[in-house]
Design a protein that fits this description.
heterodimer; A: about 210 residues; 7 helices; B: about 450 residues; alpha/beta; Beta Polymerase, domain 2; Rossmann fold; 3 domains; six-stranded parallel sheet; 17 helices
Chain lengths: ~210, ~450
Amino acid sequence: MPVTNIHEAASFFPWCILILFFLLEYRYKIGLLGSFIMPVVFVLMLSSSVFPREIKEINPLLKSYWLIIHTILAFLGDASFAMAFGIGIMYLLQERYLKSKHLSGLFLRLPNLQVLDELNYRLISLGFPLLTLAIITGAIWASTALGKYWRWDPKEVWSLVTWLIYALVLHLRLTLGWRGRKAAVLSIIGFILVIFTFFGVNLILKGFHAFV
Amino acid sequence: MNILVVGLNHKTADIEVREKIAFDGHKLSDAFSIMSTLSEIKENIILSTCNRVEVYANVKDADSGAECIKKFLSDFHNIPRETLDKSLYAYDGRNAIRHIYRVASSLDSMVVGEPQILGQLKDAFEFALKRKSTGVFLNRLMKKTLSVAKRIRTETKIAESAVSISFAAVELAKKIFEDLHTKSFMLMGAGEMAELAAGHLINNGVKDVLVTNRTYERAEEIAKEFNGKAVKFDEFLQELVHTDIVICSTGAPHYILLKEQMHKIMKQRKNRPVFIIDISVPRNIDPEINNLDNVYLYNVDDLKGIVNTNIQERSREAEKAEKIVDEEIEAFLKWQKSLSAVPTIVALRDKAEAIRKDELEKTLHKLSGLGEKDVNAIEALTNSIVNKLVHFPTTALKSEAEDKDAMIDIVNRIFGLSMEAGGQSDKSEDAIKEKDNELE
């Protein structure tokens, strides 16, 4: 798995997003979606290039097939959140056009609100179980490798915060009908947390996840 | 071969003149019968809509052809020539082709980009085909016209956005909802514009239709018309909980739906989006409602604003369309020019074939003791000599040279071909068809 240092992770992540993007593009044919996803992909790729490329031997303590399962789940989950982020921005834009009654430019090319809202919901409902499983498999891996399920290392804490946000998004939608703009805003906040967990924790707060 | 357009439209003639000159019902059939007897006119199509009446014709001479059609229109409809001449226009050649292309792509319509005219033109062409009043030339022109109109429709945004209030309402609904077939609709009040918009929404497939009105009987009447259900006016608030699209035109002098009320309804709806169109003047719905999440409120001025923007957009696109028209005119004229040599080529071939047959017969008469095989061989020999000789002038005539007209003239003179001016035998008609196929 090409995820043992941050350079590899930051290159592998956009690749996951692209795979998901092509699946979505094939299924929904939202041409404009690319314009909102590609900048994310581009920034990630760009950031990957500033990190050191050398591949260090992975800590034998951590070597296990749990590594593969845990990281794949985490990356796919994060990729769906990235898509939900792009869709959320499209929703906010289209909503702004409709509310302000200024109907030109991108308005004509953006899809309808309902489709964007539903897609946002579906992507989060896909990402959330993936993130949940990633956290669970991570815990199992930690217990076999380090003897403890949960170590309160910064990555774990921030993943939990992200998990809570997305749990809240789904919960509020199902109980109070928080759809549309509110759901879009929350999915954007959620993805900002994802990115912080991804880079911030590694760069600012060091922990076991900091690729050893 | 001269292409000619004679007619009038909403710009040149008042409704009084247009309704008199319209070919409705059996009149069209009668008109074709009379036109077929006019020797000036070789081919013709009659287009008659509420905004225009036009005759497209292939005539021997443009001026006398136009005169002939004008006289026919005046006689047929019993309208004095002076009245008619004020409104009629006549175009020939390049201008005629331009006019037909512009009409078909609705650049000449009252509402630029409207889709009906193309269908009407198709119908007119089909009717003419049925009456066998068209030939190679107009058929080709019409086919080309339809494809030009299609090209303009796909390459420009001339017909893209709504230019009427009721269509704008439908278009907005489609930007909020994915599928109108799953959405319910309520019409509050009545009125021409409201009912028109309601009709468009229903045509686009909204699922349930509710109608409410201060007088319940009136609601029932309208509901019947739209295949919907009448709702008592004091119950409309409850109905709003499961209505997705609302058109309001009650004529009440004050707001009948306030922000607080809508806020409650949205909670009950679990925030499912609502699209409300307030057509009433004075407004019936508190404009503040637009600030609630998932509520989209448009009033009549908002819709007018959208329509105006779209009309401006269309006129910008119309400029692109005019450029396409210009391009396509050149293409058609090129084809038309390539036809000018056809009668000469046909005459040349006919003459050569006649000489060959004549000489062959004479010689075969003189020779004796020839077997069938020998006769065939001589026949083949003469054929190939003639074909090879004729081949060079033919290719030269078919080519697109600058001095084509001079060349045609020279070939006619050196081979002694007598061409009747502008005349067209059945044979050259076939030859044009052949060439037509070649080009396609």
